[in-house]
């Protein structure tokens, strides 16, 4: 494992099952420009799909405590961008991948809370209805891309 002061590589050895709302099997345009993790859709339902990801390698940063999810996401993206741009132990640039994900505490106040509520409603009465206390926001576009954005909301299940 390579560790720097703010970022580290995390190798997920087991498959992760992630629940996402919105894209429903459509491959985001960003995946034509950037590497995206491969997954298999194992189940689909009303406005959601269950995905099993193939042991991806993720890069992450330490938690950012901010009352604004937007500021926290921007701070995290900036840290990761510097890291992949060569500000790391090896001084080597790493190819950018997509999506950039953020784990958000279910504390309210986030602009994505409406989508989280919609996803929870879609899961009602399913084996996935017991949702974790936090959710994942996956952003496929660069922050400066304002049109045709693809964002996803998901829950991680072991």
Question: Care to describe what's here?
Answer:
There is one protein chain. The chain is of the alpha+beta class and 158 residues long. The chain has one domain (7-157): Regulatory factor, effector binding domain (Multidrug-efflux Transporter 1 Regulator Bmrr, Chain A), CATH 3.20.80. The protein contains three helices and eight strands, in the order E-E-H-E-E-E-H-E-H-E-E. The protein has helices spanning 30-33, 69-84, 113-123; strands at 7-11, 16-21, 39-45, 48-53, 57-61, 100-105, 134-139, 151-157. The strands form two sheets. It has a six-stranded antiparallel β-sheet, covered by helices on one side. The two termini are 22 Å apart.
Compact overview of the structure:
By secondary structure, the chain is of the alpha+beta class. The chain has one domain: Multidrug-efflux Transporter 1 Regulator Bmrr, Chain A (Alpha-Beta Barrel).
Main attributes of the structure:
158 residues, 30% strand, six-stranded antiparallel sheet, disordered N terminus, two-stranded antiparallel ribbon, Multidrug-efflux Transporter 1 Regulator Bmrr, Chain A, signal, alpha+beta, 8 strands
């Amino acid at each position: 494992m390579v560790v720097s002061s703010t970022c580290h590589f995390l190798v997920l050895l087991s498959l992760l099952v992630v629940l996402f709302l919105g894209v429903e099997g459509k491959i985001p345009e960003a995946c034509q420009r950037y590497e995206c993790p491969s997954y298999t859709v194992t189940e689909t339902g009303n406005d959601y799909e269950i995905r099993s990801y193939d042991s991806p390698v993720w890069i992450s940063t330490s938690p950012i405590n901010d009352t604004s999810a937007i500021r926290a996401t921007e701070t995290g993206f900036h840290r990761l961008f510097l890291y992949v741009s060569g500000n790391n132990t090896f001084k080597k640039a790493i190819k950018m991948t997509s999506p950039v994900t953020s784990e958000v505490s279910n504390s309210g106040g986030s602009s994505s809370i409406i989508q989280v509520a919609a996803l929870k409603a879609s899961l009602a009465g399913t084996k996935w209805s017991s949702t974790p206390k936090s959710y994942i926001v996956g952003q496929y576009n660069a922050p400066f891309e304002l049109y045709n954005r693809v964002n996803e909301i998901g829950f991680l299940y072991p």
